[in-house]
Amino acid sequence: MRIHFEKISYIYDRNLPFAHTALSDIELDIREGKITAIIGETGSGKSTLVQHLNALLIPSSGQIELGDHLIKANEKNKNLKKLRKEVGLVFQFPEYQLFESTILDDVAFGPIRFGISKEESYERARSALSNVGISPILYDRNPMELSGGQKRRVAIAGILALDPKILVLDEPAAGLDPEGAKRLVDLIVSLNREFNKTIILVSHDNDMVYSYTDDTVFMRDGRVIYHGPTLDLFNDGELIKKNHLLLPTVVNFKNRLREAGFEVDENARTIEQIAEAVSRRISR
Predict the structure, then answer these.
(1) Edge-to-edge strands of the sheet including 166-170?
(2) How far apart (Å, rounded) are the C-alpha atoms in residues 147 and 242?
(3) Per DSSP, which regions of the chain are E strands?
(4) Are 98 and 154 in contact (CB under 8 A)?
(5) Maximum distance among all alpha carbons in the chain?
(6) Following DSSP, what letter does each residue of 36-79 receive, concatenated?
């Protein structure tokens, strides 16, 4: 499903004295079947950008092509229900998406609302919950009784039950402990690799971005500063310095190893991969 932004701008409170331009002339193509990160400082336009993907926001100017859907500024957009089935958005705070009295009812709500039979909707809900690692013994629990990581998994399951082509996650690991964040990232990667979902995630965690994403969109002041392979971004010293971008821990570690005389593969993304490379070097 193609994702193409063409000269997209968005102005909050347009035509009012306190109007604010959040996006300016965004030109962007996001690769299908890949994991793409959107990074940048708070207020750079990241969340505004992704809310255009399922028409929660309509552009002030420009247009967005999402597969067969075309969202244009100043036009009444049709078929938004179908679009929102194909593009699933998981908010930063899962509590915004969890409202039924039980987990199973919550995840089945979406398919039922989209006209799928009740029997099939609950079958989809069970399958989605299984895929995100939620045990059946929790299905009758109230979602608000879950841990932060479990709530995020249930929120993701509620979107997966619709079988979207694109999954958009806003700060998916925010507030989670390192172990919970790692489990969630592993889930995101498996959804991409095993189920061929196009994943778009907004994140401030450059360590996670560096280790697990294919491409990165770096935003600043409502504009795209960089869009391309994640490794190329964090290997561009001039761009990093100019934009005061925080280097991932793994990149700093690789740089220190090189200073100590160790050759490290540019494609090594995790501490485990680097440790393996160093071990091979020592053994030689």
Answers:
(1) 87-90, 166-170, 198-202, 35-39, 215-220, 223-229
(2) 40
(3) 3-12, 20-30, 35-39, 61-66, 69-72, 87-90, 166-170, 198-202, 215-220, 223-229
(4) yes
(5) 68
(6) EEEE-STTSSHHHHHTTTTTSS--SEEEEEETTEEEETTSPPP-
Distances (CA, A) of 99 to 96, 107, 140, 282: 8, 10, 13, 55
The answer to whether 105 touches 119, Cβ cutoff 8 Å, is no
Place of tokens 């761009």: 239
What confidence tens digit (pLDDT) does each residue in 108-164 have?
999 999 999 999 999 999 999 998 889 999 999 999 999 888 998 899 999 999 999
Burial of 244 (0-12, 13-18, 19+ CB in 10 A): exposed
CA distance 233 to 207: 13
Distance, CA of 207 to CA of 178 (rounded, Å): 12
Three-state DSSP at 134 gives coil
| 162-174 per-residue burial string, b: 16 or more CB within 10 A, e: under 16 | bbbbbbbbbbbbe
CB distance 95 to 165 below 8 Å: no
CB-based contact 214:230 (threshold 8 Å): yes
| Residue 186 one-letter amino acid | D
**Strand pairing category for 215-220 and 61-66:** unpaired
Q: List the structure tokens of 1.
A: 């499903």
Residue 17, SS3 per DSSP: coil
And the tokens for 117?
A: 């039979």
Q: Which two tokens stand for residue 228?
A: 């391309």
Q: Which two tokens stand for residue 37?
A: 């990160």
Give tens-digit pLDDT for 148-192. Answer: 889 988 999 999 999 999 999 998 887 778 888 888 888 899 999
